[in-house]
Amino acid sequence: MTDASASRPDRPSPRTAFLLTQLGADAADRFAQRVAELGLTPRDAGAIRVLGRDPGISQRELATRLGTVPSRLVALVDELERRGFVERSRSPHDRRNYQLQLTAAGTELLGRLRVIAEAHQAEVLAPLDQDESVVLSRLLAKLAGGATIGPDGHPGYREAAEGLRPEASSSRR
């Protein structure tokens, strides 16, 4: 493999963004396979994770955190509610809004998701030692901040908000 950085160690590889894309797609595919074993999609898993961390938030707030519009989130919440993982209740502060929280089944599912996420992270970071993992984490957080990607956002939610298929959205970038 020829790489310009091999002759110029003081510069990043011209393939860095491409490698990030490849690794991100591979990691996302593997995560999707793992959560599919629980009958979930990554979008489901993300919503459950946020609700586990911040019970009682509104659908509007959940949509904001996930980087989608509230109208696109309704079907996702409806399905999680139908499956018994999430429940809606009227907000005591604003009767026009609903608060979302995990049910007992949703909380149990969140525990299983955490085990999957930890195994996934360990697998993805296996080639790195502890110090390298910490440095990578900090650098990726810095890149995500520069790209205005929130800690809970994901391009899959944005694509859903825009009504785009992944192929269509990638051609726009």
UniProtKB/TrEMBL annotation:
Transmembrane segments: none
Disordered: region residues: 146-173
Span of the signal peptide: none
Bias (Basic and acidic residues): 155-165
Gene Ontology MF terms: DNA-binding transcription factor activity
Coiled-coil boundaries: none
SUPFAM superfamilies assigned to the protein according to its UniProt record, in alphabetical order: Winged helix' DNA-binding domain
One Pfam family per UniProt: MarR_2
GO biological process: response to stress
Source species, domain of life: Bacteria
HTH marR-type domain sequence ranges: 13-145
Cross-referenced PANTHER family: MARR FAMILY REGULATORY PROTEIN, TRANSCRIPTIONAL REGULATOR, MARR FAMILY
Record's protein name: HTH marR-type domain-containing protein
Organism of provenance: Leifsonia poae
